Amino acid sequence: MWVNPEEVLLASALWMTERANPYFILQKRKGHGDGGGGLAGLLVGTLDVVLDSSARVAPYRILYQTPDSLVYWTIAHGSSRKEITENWEWLEQNLLQTLSIFENENDITTFVKGKIQGIIAEYNKSHDIREDDDTDKFKEAIAKFRKLFIMPEEEKLVNYYSCSYWKGKVPRQGWLYLSINHLCFYSYLLGKEAKLVIRWADITQLEKNATLLLPDMVCVSTRCSEHVFSVFLNINETFKLMEQLANIAMRQLLDNKGFEQDRSLPKLKKKSPKKVSALKRDLDARAKSERYRALFRLPKDEKLDGHTDCTLWTPFNKMHILGQMFVSTNYICFTSKEETVCSLIIPLREVTIVEKADSCNVLPSPLSISTKNKMTFLFANLKDRDFLVQRISDFLQQTTSKIYFEREITGSLSSSDDEGSALSCSPQRSALSSDGERDRQFNLNESRVPTATQALMTMYRRRSPEEFNPKLAKEFLKEQAWKNHFTEYGQGVCMYRTEKTKELVLQGIPENMRGELWLLFSGAINEMATHPGYYEDLVEKSMGKYNLATEEIERDLHRSLPEHPAFQNEMGIAALRRVLTAYAFRNPNIGYCQAMNIVTSVLLLYAKEEEAFWLLVALCERMLPDYYNTRVVGALVDQGVFEELAHVYVPQLYDCMQALSVISTISLSWFLTLFLSVMPFESAVVVVDCFFYEGIKVIFQLALSVLDANIHQLLSCKDDGEAMTILGRYLDSVTNKDSTLPPIPHLHSLLTDNRDPHPEVDIFKLVRISYEKFGSIRADVIEQMRFKQRLRVIQAIEDTTKRNVVRTIVTETPFSIDELEELYTLFKVKHLTSCYWGSTSNPMSRHDPSLPYLEQYRIDLEQFKVLFALLFPWACGTHTDDLALRVFRLLDHNADALINFREFISGLSVLCHGDLTEKLKFLYKIHILPVKKMHTPDYRMYLRLWNQETKAKLENMKDLPKLNQSQFIELCKTLYNMFSEDPNEQELYHATATVTSLLLEMGEVGKLFCSPAHKTDEDEDDEDDRIPVCRSKQERTRCKPCDVETNSCVAGPLEDIKLEDSSPKDTAMSSAMLISDDETKDDTSMSSYSVLSTGSHELDDKLQCEDIAEDTVLIRNGGPYAGAGHHGKAGLPHSASIDKDWAITFLQFLASVLTEQALVQYFEKPVEISARITNAKNVRKVGHQHMSLSDYEISLSD
């Protein structure tokens, strides 16, 4: 490989010269190759690994030097002698003569350097290598990574770090390589090599710990082992990257979404660290964007562009607040250094003016931003103001273009709609129009249903004039307080959010302001503003369509706050149906989950229908991630976080709660519905107020407060039922004395016993206590805990899935439970490997967590071929892939080109533990299917036939289709390849020849009972099929040395080999059949091999072996001879056509095999799958740079 010329000071240090001429020197690194260089070689090898020398991956190099100079230049290096020799020979042939012409050494040097750089530039251009891709140093690391761990090009290295790996009590200094899918370690110390490869998807725990001896260490745990790394130069950076990569792997296990690199990153500056790869920059940018979005509740696709320190002038207290400004594609945000002082979100769609103000000593580098609602924000102390203004201007221009485009679309839609003005001015109203046509398109029952034009609460608010007056007065005061706040701090999305805002939220949001403020604090207002008409389109598309989600929604509609009058009539029910169904169609991965109906019904009470939809989007996709998928993973993760927090904050209660298993019971119902299902409605909405403002930490704080308030009663509980009763009575007693709503009966009040009611607990007091006692819980700490629990939960789900699969299938197969678990792991890993290393089919179509356990993972043909070669006992010889194709098509019952684990095991069970009849039946079936054409009618016909057959308890062997002549030859060919590596190979060939001869005679006799077939178009087509022969001596076959009764084949020089018919039997049937891999023209049940059948003795008794292609099988007088090799395409001067009347049945095939003891013993012999599983866990597929198929173990040379 040519490299940009680099100066070398000491040419001979640690290198040995192998070739030299006046201008170039070829050298090899000491300690590399045979001999190792003794002690010096060991020291050099160790030094190369510790110092990350490029010589470890490229032990050969070529230096350039002029005769009178002491300076050397590296111009090429190579990983092998062959590679470097090619470069050396090119230099001798193309440059050496030219250099002798030059008189000036400087001219020679300039010419050589220019020539090498030109070659590199041409290579980069032809291979489309971008300039801003990884640096030369990192490319060396990538090459080293792939060479050491045999990784394919699809496996992307992110970064590598120097560290020590602890094997027992002995540290091994080396390098930790972190790629997208693997954690790898390599060490070479004085001749001892250590390698470790772990898939991120196998990691169950990842922790950063500290001890007295090892202040900084990282522990990586899998299901079967634990690994410790220490002595990091930057442990925080390393651990954050490891966390991020493990998270990507967990996300892949959860929803099968692979990693896609972001190619839109800006180019690196020249002063940037050289070691940082493009992929590492991408991951860093992702991590920063995730923190940015979580901090300001922004949409999921928002990308952070950059951030800078600055000050913000706050008019409410007339101060310059120190903080950071964040700029992204659609937003400018600010947060103070002290978290609670002030934060600000400015959508660029609201910005009207961005201008640079005059600098002064008091206000250096100021920047003024004005918005549509007449607010002006003044930032100062900006380090690079001009660049910042340019970036904001660019984003503003893009935003203006988007708004203009959306208006054009909205205008075109409104022009074709009678209600056009309503659609363009207020998109959310169009779905709630009272127009008859609108009503009908939202109605599942085609009957007219009134639709809600406002929040449902405003329609069903009942107030008694007398008894609620004090409460109404307090509600009025709350409204006034919020209005005063808006006047001072601004209103809408651009308002200043301060400690005062938090105080008002904790005091309770007024009833008629809830919808507006929930939208604002959750960030849903941004998504709704940037997606006009989106909800209406979803409703139109989803209404009237039925699937599993809509069935579940219909079932739960009348269980959603049934005690509230808003959901005791069709208007509320219809609105709830539309919102839930629209979201199920927006996000089919979630669809619908129980508890979503309760939360959505509350949202509809306080928000308009479209607003409730976007609030639900914010809840499911950002604020409560993965809560509402089919396995409620997010809720289980937060349950684990809650257990950790309980252990820290209420340690005296933790052991008792764990013993009673109460935490796991209460947390799901509390978290999934945000306490709406366990508290009185008017109290629970206060919790929702705080949740939309502060996020999940409020739920944790409140849950801890409930436990803390009942600590003494819980400690005296004897069982979980008693504990649940105590907590239920307590939560049912939580009241909201400020509520203007009439009391609504709550479920808990109906279930509690007849004891004295629990003393009332004020919800505002409970919230205050939760902030006082547990307000120190930080959002970033929660995210750290979530990562730890996510590893545990997802791996536990994977283990549960495996156990359920094994438990379901163990009664259907003779494999043991341990063997099935190992096979399932191999099956799943093969699927996962194909997801990130490429496959012929879409991984999303092969993994659906919503399917039954047995069908969640499915593999396609290419993956099956690998597993077939490793596990199936019939995999042998050059035709393994062809046999795998036949087996795959037989196992693929529904013809979707994918097989699930049950189908996979059904085939493997037959071949490993089936009796003689089952195995022969399996062999017979796979040869009836066409080889090439999966879409033919016959293929589907056979599948339908066999599907019915598998459902029957007793299979009738007489119903199996007959085997025609072409398929019979295929079967013979398969048998010969199956036996090619068997210890009793010759005896099996002998038996096969006898059986083949017998079956040929049976087929010929069977023709006597068949009426002559009329010549068809297919016959005419078949006449054009010619038998392929070899076109060169290199393609000639080698006949297997065998002695088959009177048929013999003697090995000798290829030109002299002859196949003679010396059989004493002289029957009316004398045939010679040759088979090639050429595809037949027959579209029905024809095999993909042509067959020559002559019905007489007129064919020459002697056929030269050079006339037969290497992939052909010759059968003469029942004596078969097999040869394997390359495909041929030439013709013999003999006619080649299929005998349509020739056929045999399965019973004839079975009876013939039973006559030969060698074949009977072969097929009756059971196969031990454990040895094949062990081999599959360690073997590397020859010719493919694929890693092991199972958990990777460390390989250490002691």
Write the layout of secondary structure elements.
Layout: E1 2-8, E2 15-20, E3 24-29, H1 38-50, E4 60-64, E5 72-78, H2 81-94, H3 96-99, H4 105-126, H5 136-149, E6 157-167, E7 170-179, E8 182-189, E9 192-199, E10 203-209, E11 217-222, E12 226-230, H6 235-255, H7 278-296, E13 304-314, E14 319-328, E15 331-336, E16 342-347, E17 351-356, E18 367-371, E19 376-380, H8 385-415, H9 420-425, H10 427-430, H11 436-441, H12 456-459, H13 469-489, E20 497-498, H14 499-507, H15 514-522, H16 524-530, H17 534-542, H18 548-556, H19 570-586, H20 596-606, H21 609-623, H22 633-649, H23 651-660, H24 662-672, H25 681-694, H26 697-709, H27 711-715, H28 720-732, E21 734-735, H29 747-751, E22 761-762, H30 763-774, H31 779-809, H32 817-837, H33 843-846, E23 858-859, H34 861-871, H35 880-891, E24 899-900, H36 901-913, H37 916-926, H38 937-951, E25 963-964, H39 965-978, H40 985-1007, H41 1017-1023, E26 1042-1044, E27 1047-1049, E28 1058-1060, E29 1072-1073, E30 1102-1104, E31 1113-1116, E32 1119-1122, E33 1143-1144, H42 1146-1153, H43 1157-1164, H44 1169-1178, E34 1195-1196
Parallel strand pairs: 21-22
Antiparallel strand pairs: 1-5, 2-3, 3-4, 4-5, 6-7, 6-12, 7-8, 8-9, 9-34, 10-11, 11-12, 13-14, 13-19, 14-15, 15-16, 16-20, 17-18, 18-19, 23-24, 25-33, 26-27, 28-30, 29-31, 31-32
